[in-house]
Amino acid sequence: MTATDSTGNLTHSILVLHGPNLNLLGQREPTVYGATTLADINQMLEQEGRSLRVKVTAFQSNHEGALVDAIHAAFGQHQGIVINPGAYTHTSVAIRDAIAGVAIPTVEVHLSNVYKREAFRHHSYIAPVAVGQISGFGSESYRLGLLALVHYLRQQNPM
Ligand code: CA2
After folding, report:
1. Is 76 inside any structural domain?
2. What pLDDT score does 76 carry?
3. What is the pLDDT of residues 119-134, one digit of tens each?
């Protein structure tokens, strides 16, 4: 599904997915993940979406199957996905298969630089099915991910 902007022009619709524990952002472990809450990030992305003329819809779940269901439901509804799969980045073949299955261009984002952290965070099951990955810029990773995705979609399919 595509949306229209205030001038009636067609725009892309982008789904932002947040994985497990990201609902705790700004409330727990601020030294690791910062003081910005998930609501702050979603608000910033909606605002960025307005200036890019894209519709942004956000969803968070702590459950792998719920994230898989959201990816399936995105088919025909959203033209792109920005996902921070959280710890499922390093474990989930199911999320990887869902992204590959719907073939919706997807950008993987991380708040922290996962390559500076423990070795188990250095492997992503999602990266091989993503357009690209942004890691290490705090909440700015999401904004950069949205910009990169919209740029990619407009190159592929100008509206
Ligand atoms: O850096 C990222 O964005 C991560 O996806 C965050 C995940 C971690 O497992 C990945 O390796 C990298 C963890 C998210 C946990 O979020 C919390 C936020 C506040 C308090 C506790 C956890």
Report:
1. yes
2. 97
3. 999 999 999 999 999 9
Is 110 known to be catalytic? yes
Q: DSSP state, 111?
A: S
Query: Domain for residue 3, yes or no?
Result: no
- Provide the β-strand partners of residue 83: 17, 108
Among residues 12, 18, 33, 142, the one annotated as catalytic is 33
Check residue 6 and give its pLDDT: 63
- Alpha-carbon separation of residue 131 from 5, 42, 71 (angstroms): 26, 21, 15
Known binding-site residue numbers: 84, 90, 97, 111-112, 121
Binding-site residue ranges for substrate: 84, 90, 97, 111-112, 121
Looking at the structure of the chain, the number of domains it has is: 1
* C-alpha of residue 29 to centroid of ligand 1, in Å: 10
pTM: 0.95
> Which pLDDT belongs to residue 33?
86
